[in-house]
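Before the break, one more example. Copy the sequence into your notebook; we will annotate it together after we see the structure.
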Amino acid sequence: MQNSPDSYRSNVSKNSVQRMLAIARIMGFFATGFSLTMVFPILVSYWYGDAQAEHFIRAMLYSFSLGITLLLAGWRCCYSLSVRDGFLVVALFWIGISFLAALPFVLGAHLSYTDAIFEAISGFTTTGATVITNLESLPRSILFYRQQLQWFGGMGMIVLAVAVLPLLGIGGMQLYRAEAPGPMKEDKLTPRLTRTAQLLWLIYIGITVVNAFAYWLAGMQPFDAIAHSLSTVSTGGFSTHDSSLGYFDSPLIEMIAMVFMLLGAINFSVHFLVWRNRSLLYYFYDIEVRVFLLITVFTVVIIGIVLNTSGEYSSLPYSIKDASFEVISVITSTGYGTVDFSHWPDFLPVLLILISFIGGCGGSTAGGMKVMRVLVLIQIAWREVKRLIHPRAVFSVRVGGRTLEPRIIDAVWGFLTIYVTTFVILMLLMMHSGLDQVSAFSAIATSMNNLGPGLGEVATTFATVSDDGKIIASIAMLLGRLEVFTLLVLLTPAFWKP
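Here is what the structure looks like once it is written out:
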C-alpha cells in the first residue's frame, strides 16, 4: 500500500527537522571547540600584559554560549549525515567560524565589522591578505591570534573534528570529502577516517614544532619564531611585522622559511609515507611532488635570469636568492615577502601571479587549483592531440602510472569551468567596486588562490579597498579555500529538494 501524499509530506518534514537538528549539533560542537582555542591568546595576553585578555574572554563566552545552545538543541537527534549534508555543514562551518573569529578584531583591534570579517576570513582560509597596517603597534595577543587562525585553518578544523565526531555518533567521511582539497578526495592514509585525521594532525604539529625551533635557532625571538611557524607550515603568510620576513634580513631565516613552505605545500600523505618508511625518496616517487618541484625550479631560473639581465640585481646569485624566496612563497600560496615583487621589471609580477593559479599539491595546506589538476589537464590536452593524429585509437588518461576514471576527468573539467567562470564574474564585480583592471584581476587571483599579496592597489594591503570590494574578496577567499564546488552546490535548486 502506497503512502498518501499527506503522509509523505509529514515524513519529509520530520526528516528535515531531524536533519537541521543534527547539523545544529555539529555546528554547536565546532563553535564550542573554537571558543576553547581562545585560551591561547588569553595566555599570551596575560604573559605580555597587553590588557587584551578581557576582549578574548568575551569573544570566548559568546562562541561557547552559542555552541552549547546548538549542542543542546540537537543532543537527542539521531540522524545520519548524507554527502549532501556534508557540503552544507562545511559551508556553514567556514562562514560561521569566520564570523565568530572576527569578534576579537572588533573588540580588541577596533576594526569595523567589514574589516574584521575580512581579516578573520583571510586568516582562517590561510590567504594572508590584510587590512591592518602598522602591525608592530598591535598587542602581542592580537598578533598571535592572527597567526593561530591561519594554523587551524591550514589543515582545516574539520579534519581535526572528524577524529572526534564518531564520539557524537555522526560519521565524518561526508565532511572530509567536502572539505579536503584536491581532486582525489576519497584517498585516505588508513582505512579508518578517524585515524587518518589523527595522523594528519600529528604530522602537522610535528612539522610546526620543528619549524619554530629552527626559526629560534636562526635568531628569531621565541614569540616571532612560534608565530611565524604557525603561518609558514599553514602556508598562510601572516607576519608580526609590516615588512614580513624581510624585517629579519637573514638569509638563514629565509632558507628555513623556504623549506617549510615547500613542506606545507606537499601532500601530507606523502609526508606520512616518508615518516613511516624513514626515507626521503618518497618525495621523488610521487609524480605530483616531482612536477611541483620542477615547476618551482624552472620558474626560479627564469625569474633569476631576467632580474639579473635587466639590471635589477648586480649579480646572478643575489637575483636567484630573491627569486627563489618569492617563487616558493607565491606558488605555495604563503605570501611572505622579502621584497615587493609588484615592482619587478618586465613580465615578472604577472608571471608570479599566474603561478599562484597552479598552487601546491592536493592534500596540502596550499591554495591554487593544485598541481594534480594541472597534470590531468595537460594529459587530457595531449590525448586530444593524439586523437587528431589517430582518430580511431582509444587513449586513456594516465598520471603517474595510474589510469584515471572518467569521473575524475569530468570532475577536473567541471572544476576548471566553474573556477574560470567564477573568477571572471568576481573580477568584474571587483572592478565595479572601484578597482582598476590590474588591481581587480590580482585581487581576485590572490583571494581565490589564497595567496595574499597582489598587484597595483592590493600589492601589500586591502586597506584602501572599498567595503564592497572587501566583501567580494572575502567570498573569493572562501570559494578558493573550499575549491568552489562546496559553496556553489548550495545555490542549486536540486540541492534543497528532499
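The chain has a mean pLDDT of 86. The two ends are 22 Å apart (CA to CA). Try to locate both features in your own notes.
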